[in-house]
Amino acid sequence: MYLGWLIVYLASVGLVSAAGNCSYKALIEHLGLGNDDIQMTSLRPVFEWKTPTYVFLDLYVTSITEVNEKAQSLSTQVTILLGWANPFTVWNQDDFCGISLCSVKKDMIWIPDITITESIKTEFATSENQYVQLLYHGAVVTSNTFAVTTACKMNLHQFPFDVQSCTITLQSPIHSIEELIISPFSDASFLTFSSKKAFQTQGEWELLSINTSKANVSTLGDPQDQLIYKITMRRRPMLYVINFLMPVLYFLILDLATFFIDSSGGEKLGFKVTLLLSISVLLLLLQDMLPSTATDIPLIGIYCIVIFTLMAVSVLETILVNFLIAKGNQTISVRPMKSSSALSDAVKDTKGPPDPETDRSEEHLNTLDILKQILMEFQAAATHQNQQERKSLNWTRVATIDPLPNPNQPPSQELPGYIPPLPSDLAVSVSTDQPHRKRKRQSGSQEDERPSTSHRRPAKRSRREAYAKGPLLGQGGFGSVHAGIRRSDGLPVAIKYVSKSRTPERLKVEGHGRLPLEVALMTLVNSAPACPNVLQLLEWFDRRRRYIMILERPVPCQDLQSFCEENGYLDEGLAKKILLQLISALKHCESRGVLHRDVKPENLLISTESHDIKLLDFGCGDRLKDSAYKYFAGTIEYAPPEWFRQRCYHAGPATVWSVGVTLYNILCGCFPFRECRQLIRWCLSASASDRPTLDDIESHPWVSRSDTAENSFRKRSKHELMAATQIDWLHHLLQSVRGSVWILEELNTVPAKPEAEIS
Biased-composition ranges for Basic and acidic residues (predicted)? Predict the structure, then answer.
C-alpha cells in the first residue's frame, strides 16, 4: 500500500516539474527578460555591433479625417505594424510545450525609435499599446493606431476635380543606415487593398492607392534609411458642383436673359448689379477655401473670374445703351418742332399776302398733306424693293416628271411634264448667272456608275445591286465571309462583313483619307505593283454599323489547313513551294510598311490545281514599326515566347516565329530531312535575336535546293498519322516541361521574404 502511494507521489512531482516548463514565466526567465538586463532593454540586439538591425514596417490608412487646403495639412488615422529581428529572444518551442509566441511589456525589450518626418501633431487614436509580441524564431512585432496630422504640399490647380498625393516618411532619428535598415512588410497592392477594406469614413475624399519607396537622407553626417508611404486620394466633387459651379453658371444664364428686358426702366440695370454682387459673395467663399500662396491659379478661380468679367462688361454695356437711348430721345423730341416750322415757312412763301386766320388753318392742313405725301412715298419705295427681292425667288415652272419606261431612250416631247434641255450657250449663261447656287450631281453621271475601289471613296450604291451573296464561307470574332458573284460579269468574289463596333480604329492613308484599319492595310498592300500572293481588295462599302469588303475569290481553292487535313500532310517539295510564296507575300507587305501579325495555315488560300497561295485576312494587322509592340493580336498558338516572358515583341522575329510554326504545322507527323529540321529549329529559337530573317530563310540550303518531284503531297497511312500524333503530343509535353522549368528559375531569382531574413 505504501508503495502505491509512493508511485503516485513521484508521478505528481514529475507532472508539476514538466508543467513548470510550460508557463510563460519559465520562458521569460529563460530569455532573461525579467532581470532588467541592459542588453535586452537598452542596447540594439546584435551579437556584433557592425551587424545592422532589420526593421519591417506596414502603414495602413483607416480614415481620412480632414484635408486642410488653407493650411496644407492632412489629418489621417493610421495603423503602423512594426517588426524587427532580435537574436536574443530565440527559443526552441519544443522545450516549452510548443509555445511559439509570447507577449511582454514594452519596457522589457529594446524597441526601434521610428518617427514620422512630416508630423505636425501625432497622438494615439485610443490608448498606447503597452505590449510587444515575441516569436520563437526571434521576431518581435508590435502595432499602434495613431491620429496623425502631417504637412502635405497640395496642387489645387484642378480643384475640385483634383487628385492629391501626400507622403508619410518613417525613419530613425538616431541610427544610421549601417545600424538600422527599414523595409516594407507588404507590397503596395496589399496595403491599398487592406486600407480600403478597413476604411471607416465615406466623406469628401476617396482613397486611391498607397505606394512605398525608399530613400536615404543625411542629417548628422551619417546617411539614414527612410521608408516613404505615398497616399493618393481623390476628391468627390459633386458637392462643389452643386453648391458652387452650377450657381455661377446659372447667374451667367440669368445675365444673358436680361437682354430681353426692356431698357426703358431701371429694373434691368439693378438686376445685373444684383447678379454681380452674388458672384462676389461666391468669390469670397472661394477665397476662404483656397490658399493664397498657390503657385498655379485654380481652374475654378479662372472660371469665376471669366464669368465675373463677362457680367461686369454686361453691366457696362447696359449703362452705355441706357445713355445712348436717353440721348436719342432728347434728339427726337427736338426735331419735330423744327420740321413743322420749316414746312410752314415753305408753304407761306408760295402764297399771297398773309392772313392770320387763313395762315393758321393752312399751316395745319399743309403740314398734314406734306406728312401724308412723305409717308406714301416711303410706302411706295418699300413696296417696290420687296417686289424686286421676291422676283428672283419665284419658280418659273412647276412640272411633274413621270418615270420613263426606257432609261436608255430620251423622252418624247409629247410626254406630260417634259422639259426640253437648254441650249449649251443658255446653260452656260444660267450657270454663270447663279454662281452661289449649289448644283446637285445627277444620279446617272458617269462618275457614280464607276465601281468604288479601295483607292477611292467607298461605294455609295447598294451592294445588292452589284453583287449576289452566296453561302457562308467562314465566321470569326470580327465578322463573317460569304461567297458571292459580281452581277455584271459573273466574277466569283468573297463578301466580308466587318462590324464597326469591334474594329473602331481608322488609319490615314495618303490620297485616300481616313480608312478602316483593315481596308487601309489592304489599300497599301494592293497598290501597284501588286503581289500575286496577296489577296486583292476589289472595292468596299461603308455602312452605318459595318463595312463590307469585296475580295477576290480564286476558284477552285481552300485554306491551307483544310487542304492538309483532306489530302494529308505535305511533303517537303510542296512545303518548300508554299514557303517561298509566303515569304514573297510577307516581304511585299514589309516593303509597303504593313505587318500581318496572324500568319497561319487558316489565313493562306491555296489553289487545288496550281498550288499557288494567297495571303488574306489583315484584320489583326498594323503599321510596321521598328519599336516593340506592346499588345498581341493574332492567334495565341503562333505567338512568340518573348510575348509570354516580356509582354512585348518585334515585328521581324515574331513573323519568323509564326512562319516556323506554320512550316512545322504543314509538315507535322513526318520527319523532314536534316536541313529542314535545322531550319525549323532555327525559326523556333527561344531568343528573338537568334532567329533568322526572311532573307535568311529564302537563302537556306533546304529552301534553295531544287526538287524534281512532281507529286507534292501524298496521303499518310494510319501508322504514319498515329506516329505524327504521338510526336506532336511529345512536342507539346516538352514545351510544357520547358515552361515549368522557366517558371521555377524565375521564382528562384525572387528575393527572400522578410521572415526568411529574420530567421
Answer: 346-363
Could you say which of 327, 351, 384 is where a domain stops? 327
The answer, yes or no, to whether the previous bond of 529 is cis (omega within 30 of 0) is: yes
Alpha-carbon span 131 to 135, nearest angstrom: 13
Domain range holding 279? 245-327
CA dihedral 23, 24, 30, 31 (to 10 degrees): 170
Q: Which residues contact 406 (CB under 8 A, 6 or more apart)?
A: none
Q: Do both 122 and 215 map to the same domain?
A: yes
**Considering the domain boundaries, does residue 649 fall inside one?**
yes
Query: Could you say which of 494, 521, 552 is where a domain stops?
Result: 552
pLDDT digit string (tens) for 77-101? 999 999 999 998 899 988 889 899 9
Secondary structure of residue 616 in the 3-state scheme: coil
Report the distance separating Cα 613 and Cα 611, nearest Å. 6
Preceding peptide of 160 cis, ω within 30° = yes
In a domain, 187, yes or no: yes
Query: What are the binding residues for ATP?
Result: 496
- Helix (H) / strand (E) element for 67: namely strand 53-68
In a domain, 734, yes or no: no
Active site residue 598: yes
Binding-site residue set: 496
For 135-177, write each residue's pLDDT tens digit. 999 999 999 999 999 999 888 888 889 999 999 999 998 888 8
Cell reading at 259:
437682354
Clarify whether residues 104 and 225 are in a common domain.
yes
Of the candidates 598, 696, 707, 728, the residue annotated as catalytic is 598
